[in-house]
Write a structure and sequence with these properties.
Layout (H helix, E strand, L loop, with lengths): L2 E2 L5 H6 L5 E6 L4 H17 L4 E6 L4 H6 L7 E6 L2 E6 L5 H19 L5 H10 L1
Parallel strand pairs: 1-3, 2-3
Antiparallel strand pairs: 2-4, 4-5
Helix pairs in contact: 2-4, 2-5
Length: 128
């Protein structure tokens, strides 16, 4: 499940989060946003409680969209301790996103010991 965050709850849920947060800026009219949603849920399932996944409606939260200088949707930000660690935008499809999420998992895993079991890893490769 993706937690829906707004400008009102952003500081508490994202900037003050004790764990890294993958922020998905999306909009109801965005077709690619709907396509990547299941992949983000799978990523969250693989990472467990090591990463929080939140969604922000870019149209309804214009101040956040401006603050983070969104150029396209979807835009994903990995925010840790209030700092943007990675920015993912301009996807060309599922494969682009899967590769980017795998890189996050690998780089994050090196520093924070995120472990996935074999069954979870196999699931990720089957979707690609």
């Amino acid at each position: 499940m993706v937690l829906s965050v707004s400008e009102r709850t952003f500081t508490q849920e994202v900037l003050e989060s004790p764990i890294p947060v993958l922020v998905n800026f999306e909009a109801p009219w965005c077709g690619l946003c709907r396509i990547i949603h299941p992949l983000l849920l799978q990523f969250k399932a693989q990472c467990g409680d090591q990463i929080k996944l939140v969604g922000i409606n870019a149209d309804d939260n214009f101040k956040l969209s401006t603050t983070y200088r969104l150029k396209s949707l979807p835009t994903l930000l990995l925010i840790e301790n209030g700092i943007v660690r990675q920015r993912l935008e301009g996807f060309r499809g599922r494969e682009d996103l899967l590769q980017a999420l795998e890189e996050i998992k690998l780089s994050y895993g090196k520093h924070h010991k995120v472990h996935t079991n074999t069954k979870t890893a196999e699931l990720g490769y089957r979707l690609a």
